[in-house]
Each structure stands twice: as C-alpha cells, then as structure tokens.
Amino acid sequence: MTSERNGRLALVGVGRMGAAMATGWLRKSRGGVPADRLIFIDPGLEGPAADLAREHGVTHLASLDAKTAKSVDTLILAVKPQVMEKVLPALSEVVREDTLIISVAAGIGLRTFEKAFPGRPIVRNMPNVPGAIGKGINVAIANARADELGLRKQAETLLKVTGPVEWLEEERLMGAATGVSGSGPAYVFLMAEALARAGEAEGLPADLAERLAVATVAGAGAMLEKSLKDGSANAAELRRSVTSPKGTTQAALDVLMGEGGLPSLIHKAVAAAEKRSRELGSGEKK
Ligand SMILES: NC(=O)C1=CN([C@@H]2O[C@H](COP(=O)(O)OP(=O)(O)OC[C@H]3O[C@@H](n4cnc5c(N)ncnc54)[C@H](OP(=O)(O)O)[C@@H]3O)[C@@H](O)[C@H]2O)C=CC1
Ligand SMILES: O=C(O)[C@@H]1CCC=N1
C-alpha cells in the first residue's frame, strides 16, 4: 500500500542542520517543498532559521499541539541526540498513527524511535550541510513499517531535494557513514582553513591566502564531481595528474602521505566519529 501524502511537514529543531535542510526544501528550482506545507517546531529561532521563516512565511511554533499534529504526515526530527529522548514523549502523544517519522540525529537508532512511536513508519537519515544548496548527500535506513506502507519512496522524494539518497540495509553502518559524509564537510572546511593559514605562514597576505585556499577546495571538488560523472578520472587519478615527477606537489605529498600522514589521520578521525556515534546511541551522551 502506498499512501498519497500531501499533508504538512513538521521540522522539529531548526538549528544548523534543520535550517540547512529547510533551505534546501524551500529552493523551488529543485522541486522543493512549498512554504505552506512546512512547519518549524523550535522553542526559539535564531540566525538562518529565523530569516527563512520570515522570508518564506513558514509557520513557526514552539511545540507541536494536537490540532496541528493532525495535519502533519511527515515529522522530521533534527534536535541534538542529547535532547532527543526528552523531546519524544510529547510528540508521541500527538502524532498520527500514519505519520512518517524521519530522524537525522547522529547515533540514535531506529529502535529508540520504534519505542517512542510504536507501529509508525520510521526512516533514520544522515544528511549533511551542503544540502542547503542542493549539494548534500543522505544515507538512510527505513524500518519495516515504512516499507510495508511503501514510504521509502516518499521519504526519498523529500530527502533528495537536498542531495541523493543512499539506502543502507544494515543500521550498524550508519556510524561510519556519519563519520564520512555527515561530519565530512567539517574536515573539508578544516582543509581550506589550514591551507589558508599555511599560505599566510609562507608569506602570502591573509586575504589572498584565503581566496586561493577557497578557490582551490571549491575548484578541486567541482572537478572531481565532473570527472566522476563523465567517467574520465577518479580522485587518485586526478591527484596523480597534478603531481609532476620530482615537482612541487610530489614534495608536498611526500609529507602528507608519509608515515602518520593525512590518509591515516583521516581514518583515525572517521573511526573516532563512528565510535562517538555508537556512544550517542547507547546513552553515553555527555
Ligand atoms: N550540524 C550538522 O552538520 C549535522 C547534524 N546532524 C544532526 O542534526 C541534529 C541537529 O544538529 P544541529 O543542527 O547541528 O544542532 P543545533 O543545536 O544547531 O540545532 C538543534 C535545534 O533544536 C532546537 N531544540 C532544542 N530543544 C528543542 C525542542 N524541545 N523542540 C524543538 N527544538 C528544540 C535547538 O534550540 P536551542 O539552540 O535553543 O536549544 C536548536 O535550534 C543532531 O541530532 C545532529 O546529530 C546530522 C547531520 C549533520
Ligand atoms: O557533529 C555532529 O555530531 C553532527 C552529526 C554529523 C555532523 N554533525
């Protein structure tokens, strides 16, 4: 059975990730979500979320009341993992039996949501912040009820407005995916910061160093995406194409790829994120 769903979407928690998803959904150019279908549920809106609500006229409520909940067929949970369990009981009292629940919280497993919302269709998704400009990636897993009701496709239609959806069949892989793509944008931003600082340390004016670093990260990312799409090269091949034998890049890569260098550091970082995801899911939440 597939339900036709034209009801409202309630986004609970409109902070950094919630606002990034909402920004993606409100982009009409990608078949986005009309502003009058969206409701922001957050005790206080600040920054980009407040601007979005004002600019698009999105309804903003401090909490989800029973009357409004009747119109909600999709509930997206984007509060911090540390507050999730406090937020669930009140929502559980008001959401409809057929409301699709989508959580983007790191670490919190389907089982927690199945306990809070018995019998409901549930999707656990790991988005990332480039979703705000339609350049995100989602890694998702659905519970059995979501599949019984044919709602995987419904969830995908919504999530893919911010970027493609990769479905997992094994929930235990969600932590690794979080360490790669959920947290990943931070590693790339760090690379841009570090590159700019290094340029400055080598004598470039700070503003020029920043412009060079940003253009390099953005240009390399765009080139990688294009080369993978047209099948011309992968990341390792592109790296090699920049590396002239005995040239400047080779000298730099000897440092970055040496013992304890970037590949091993990135592996350690992703493993640390994966471990933290498991801790958040098991209640070690400090
Ligand atoms: N940031 C990211 O890049 C990513 C985050 N995520 C996940 O998204 C979730 C949100 O993270 P992030 O956006 O960074 O965190 P934020 O703290 O920026 O956003 C959480 C929002 O929830 C609000 N909030 C707190 N309590 C309630 C409540 N009872 N009802 C409704 N809203 C409430 C907060 O308000 P206040 O600030 O006033 O407490 C805040 O606006 C997390 O679970 C995280 O794991 C997933 C992928 C990427
Ligand atoms: O740092 C975090 O815990 C969240 C989840 C992935 C990205 N940000």
From TrEMBL:
Q: What class of enzyme is it?
A: oxidoreductase
Protein name listed in UniProt: Pyrroline-5-carboxylate reductase
This protein's source sits in the domain of life called: Bacteria
Q: Where is the Pyrroline-5-carboxylate reductase catalytic N-terminal domain?
A: 8-107
Enumerate the spans annotated as Pyrroline-5-carboxylate reductase dimerisation domain: 171-280
**Molecular function terms from GO:** pyrroline-5-carboxylate reductase activity
Catalytic reactions on record:
L-proline + NADP(+) = (S)-1-pyrroline-5-carboxylate + NADPH + 2 H(+); L-proline + NAD(+) = (S)-1-pyrroline-5-carboxylate + NADH + 2 H(+)
Q: What is the lineage of its organism?
A: Bacteria, Pseudomonadati, Pseudomonadota, Alphaproteobacteria, Maricaulales
Pathway listed for it is:
Amino-acid biosynthesis; L-proline biosynthesis; L-proline from L-glutamate 5-semialdehyde: step 1/1
Q: Name one GO biological process term.
A: L-proline biosynthetic process
User: Mainly resides where?
Assistant: cytoplasm
The record describes the protein's role as:
Catalyzes the reduction of 1-pyrroline-5-carboxylate (PCA) to L-proline.
Q: Could you say which residues bind NADP(+) here?
A: A78, V79, K80, P81
What Gene Ontology cellular-component terms does the record carry?
Answer: cytoplasm
Membrane-spanning parts: none
Q: What is its EC number?
A: 1.5.1.2
